[in-house]
Amino acid sequence: MLIDYDSKNKVFHLQTKHSSYVMGLDHGYLLHHYWGKKITTYRGSRPIVYAPRSFAPYADPTHRGFSLSTLPLEYPAYGNGDFRHPAYQVQLENGSTVTDLHYAGHVIYSGKKKLDGLPSTYVEQDQEAQSLDIILEDSVAGLTVVLTYCVFRDFDAITRSVRFENRGTKSLRLLRAASTSVNFRDDQFDSLTFYGSHNNERNINRRPLYPDMQVIDSTRGASSPQHDPFFALMRKNADETQGEVFGFSLVYSGNFAAQIEVDQYRTVRASIGINPFDFSWLLNSGASFQTPETVMVYSDCGLGGMSRTYHQLYRSRLARGKHRDRLRPILINNWEATYFKLSEEKLLAIAKEAQKAGIELFVLDDGWFGHRNNDKSSLGDWFVDRQKLPHGLSWLSNRIHEMGLLFGLWFEPEMISPDSDLYREHPDWSLHVPDRPRSLSRYQLVLDMSRADVRDYLLQALSAILSSANINYVKWDMNRHMTEIGSALLPPERQRETAHRYMLGLYELIDKLTRAFPDILFESCSSGGGRFDPGMLYYMPQTWTSDNTDAICRLKIQYGTSVVYPPITMGAHVSAVPNHQVGRITSLKTRGDVAMSGNFGYELDLTKLTDEEKQQVRQQVTFYKRIRPLIQFGDFYRINSPFEDDDTAWCFVSPDQSEAIGFYFKVLASPAQVLKAFRFQGLNPQALYENLATGEVFGGDELMNAGLNVPDEKGDFRSYVWQFKRVQG
Ligand code: DGJ
User: Roughly how many angstroms between the first and final C-alpha of the chain, as a whole number?
Assistant: First the structure.
């Protein structure tokens, strides 16, 4: 049993394979007791302490210690004694914003329900999970709040989401609605979050907690490259391989906020959900509101253990569709090869070289539609530019298929250029507010995805293109953030719903499109990894990790991204040197080894390579095809962090531990080179493994503990790869 309710003691005990999550009822309040390593039977050895504190209002007039200001409330309200940040806030018609939630019942059931209109993890069979709905009520407001928990049988993960229902006769206004709030009894943690920018996504930021508030968020209308809807709390002694880590990942692609608050008595309240900033939602009588889902992962094997749980769960029970379990094609993308200056002749020449190299998919990027010769026009006009492609898409796709390659196409559906027929016809279709100029970014505006007519147009326009040719792959781009967030169709009292309604509209459109074209492999992109989040991964099983294709910058970007997202989801391409983003020159080998650590491809003009380089590309492609199952479906171990050292190392181990591949990258050479070792992780210590390059055989324990020497060679930006196969044990 994954969820147990002890009716005598009024305690809920949720158990994954290695973790326990415990809540209890007292005075009708739902209190958090414990989250951590698995406890077989919870008997309450460390009960909640009701310490009377100064300045503490008490909810029970006969019990000074029963104060909401210190109790670990599972879904805290605002206004009646808890001075920490609430998980939610509701305004009543009388203007008051005070509410109070009391337990009204619960239901335990097999399986996992779908979330209305939102992406979420799922199960394929009811036995894979058990769920719990805890119903809380505020009878004055007529408000019902349903906290939903789901416990997976096969993953150390628990999901949470919340549904608000207005069961009263008057309207309510939701001002804040976190998906999750968890209290911890002490603050002996570091937080781990990401920060970044375009071309520089998901840098790791680990810092101690203080008695204050740490916040990461987005107000940009996208999860953004600046932050990611994820944070972890790590015990002080926790590192990559050991110690307790608590992960929180929000399945959402829009404005989010995560906050970690340490109070005066050094307890922690951590929460994540839709950003309450500039958000509100009108709940008329009978209406309900569903929050996005949080996926909470507990690991007592350090950050690496947490990451592998997210990887397995997101690969198999977040991503969906035909491509979920399939090997992903090696692609060539023409963007950095041609930018907007594309022609049939050039594209076919690149495709020909790609075919010779064994590449499997040709992707036609931006610039094929409208009159898009630069980024100043045509978004919204999804019609082939016959000047550039006189024979049309179908012809081009057929030529490419004849070569034995699949064909993919770029779109940026959520955007509209002021210089477009669509904008001239429908100026009110862009996000805007009355009487104010519309701020441009990359010369474009954002379509109002909350509008059904906009979504209908996009569904019809994209479907027409996708049906007009043999298209096997779509790159779904999104290259600016939202400003003047308002919708021409929403009444004034609902304007602050626009950003979330946009996300709901976007999800609805992508859902329809991916269902209508189930054979197409979709990859999401937002100027690279600007919307690399679980919400998008639900619909599109891979993401372009960053516009920065420099191999050395990519070490950090891919390392950081791997904290939550599996390598199969990370688009990683070999590009030209000097690199277009930073001007660095690295060897084709190093570029290949970095890109092969993810979902592999090329993004350069293959026709410009020397014969020797073309030969090397052929070898890389052949090699990747051999290791692809290991990279895309194996377990990933981070070994050396580029955020801590000049060297980066990681390895991939097949789930049955029969194969492993290790990568080591040295950034700068040193005149007094320290001798370095590469130590595998995740092997079977009892098994024997053969080095496929040299035939040498070593025990798994030796490879993990003594390790291998990293060659001591001169030169910057070197990379080394070791491939091992189990031969015994
Ligand atoms: C941003 C993407 O990240 C690039 O790969 C490319 O598709 C450009 N947009 C095209 O405008």
Answer: 34
How far is ligand 1, taken at its centre, from the CA of residue 620, in Å?
25
Q: Could you tell me if residue 554 is left (phi over 0), alpha (psi between -120 and 50 degrees) or otherwise beta?
A: alpha
Of all protein residues, the one whose alpha carbon is nearest to atom 9 of ligand 1 is 527
pLDDT digits (tens, 9 = 90+) for 83-117: 999 999 999 999 999 999 999 999 999 999 999 89
The candidate with the shortest Cα–Cα distance to 120, out of 568, 539, 566, 633, is: 539
Instruction: Flag whether pLDDT at 673 surpasses 90.
Output: no
**DSSP secondary structure string, 91-119?**
E-TTS------EEEEEEEEES-PPPTTS-
Tell me if residue 550 is catalytic.
Answer: no
Considering 366, 381, 477, 533, which one is annotated as catalytic?
Answer: 477
> What are the pocket residues of ligand 1 if the criterion is a CB atom closer than 6 Å to any ligand atom?
335, 365-366, 410, 477, 479, 525, 527-528, 544, 547
Strands 473-476 and 521-524, sheet pairing: parallel
Cβ burial, residue 605 (10 Å; 0-12/13-18/19+)? middle
Looking at ligand 1, which residue's alpha carbon is closest to its atom 1? 527
Is the pLDDT score of 149 beyond 90?
Answer: yes
The C-alpha atoms of residue 331 and residue 364 are separated, in whole angstroms, by 10
**What phi-psi label fits residue 111: left (phi over 0), alpha (psi between -120 and 50 degrees) or beta?**
left
Per-position b or e across 323-356, b if 16+ CB within 10 A of its CB: beeeebbbbbbbbbbbeeebeeebbeebbbbbbe
Q: Which of 335, 442, 524 to mutate to test the pocket of ligand 1 (most atoms within 8 A of CB)?
A: 335
Average pLDDT over residues 224-239: 98
DSSP state, 674? P
Ligand 1 centroid, distance to 727 Cα (angstroms): 45
Distance 404 CA to ligand 1 centre (A): 25
Peptide bond into 86 cis (omega under 30): no
Which residue, by CA, sits nearest to atom 11 of ligand 1?
366
* 310-355: pLDDT as tens digits: 999 999 999 999 999 999 999 999 999 999 999 999 999 999 999 9
Average pLDDT of 421-450?
Answer: 98
Q: In the chain, what's the furthest Cα-to-Cα distance? A: 86
Tokens of 272: 């994540």
Is pLDDT of 1 > 80? Answer: no
Q: How many other C-beta atoms are found inside a 10 Å radius of the C-beta of residue 491? A: 9
Q: Looking at the CA of residue 333, tell me the nearest atom of ligand 1.
A: 5
pTM: 0.98
State the distance from the centre of ligand 1 to the C-alpha of 707, rounded, in angstroms: 41
Annotate 416-439 with DSSP letters as a single string: E-SSSHHHHH-GGGB---TTSPPP
What phi and psi, each to the nearest 5 degrees, are found at residue 522? -100, 135
Cα distance between residue 509 and residue 476, in whole Å: 12
Catalytic residue selected from 82, 217, 547, 635: 547
Residue 88 burial (CB count, 10 A)? 24
Is 278 part of the annotated catalytic residue set? no
DSSP for 375-422, written as a single string: TTS-TT--SB-TTT-TTHHHHHHHHHHHTT-EEEEEE-TTEE-SSSHH
Alpha-carbon separation of residue 213 from 55, 187, 276, 450 (angstroms): 21, 12, 16, 33
Cβ neighbours around 686 below 10 Å, total:
11
Query: How many angstroms does the Cα of residue 369 sit away from the middle of ligand 1?
Result: 14
User: What's residue 729's pLDDT?
Assistant: 87
